[in-house]
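To: structure subgroup
Subject: Chain for Friday's discussion

All,

I'm putting the inputs and outputs inline so they're searchable in the archive.
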Amino acid sequence: MSDELTQSNQKMASRGLSMSGANIQAVIQIGKKHIDYYIQKIIACEKAALPKNSPENPERYFTDLKKEIIDLVNLKFDFIFSTVQNICPNYNKIQVSAKKNVEALKESTFDLIRGNIDVLQEELNLDILSPPSRDSIRVEGSVGVLNTGQIKGNIEVNLNSLSSPESEDFKKAIQQILDSCQNSEESDEIKCKQMENIDFLVEQSKTPDSDRKKGQIESANMYLSSFNNLSGILKEYGPVILKFFGM
């Protein structure tokens, strides 16, 4: 995650973009989405590996697993906070609120990790863990899989549910970006992060205009454009997406 956010920040700096308070919150939220996705991948890896390699001491195994994931996630949150410090020209004015926001997100995320591991342990006890599925990718550091065909399928299902005439250009833009992501030579890890942001844009398209998170929409659009495999397609279709959201 650090490489991608750093790359995005450098692009923003080269374009002379300054970070407002709203955009800072958007950066924090995007970082949180990456962390949530990272946790999902770890759980998917464990679900795939545990049926074949059941631990001799489950209680100790899952206790250690909770600690390991929480320690890793804590480092990612520290990176998010340092990123905000580095890119915000008025950091001193928002230091307390930004730190408080990150700390609150930390605690809720740690609770999520504990809950997910408890469910995983119970599923192992009940012998209901699913075997690995097809159409998947490998995740670094663990023997496991994550279904990317389902991610792409979910995006397309939600996209096709948009039926208003004004959504046609938006649907075409998203499909072009999704195809560019899927067909590129980027790593599977990068593709997943790109798909996550594409999925966010599609989710927002189904949200009432008054409830849309326009700061995060702009940041997601900017984040996608920071990748070499998507920068060209975003030059053409990024404005189409922003226009759809009235931006």
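Points worth raising on Friday:
The radius of gyration is 19 Å.
Residues 91-126 form the longest helix (36 residues).

D.
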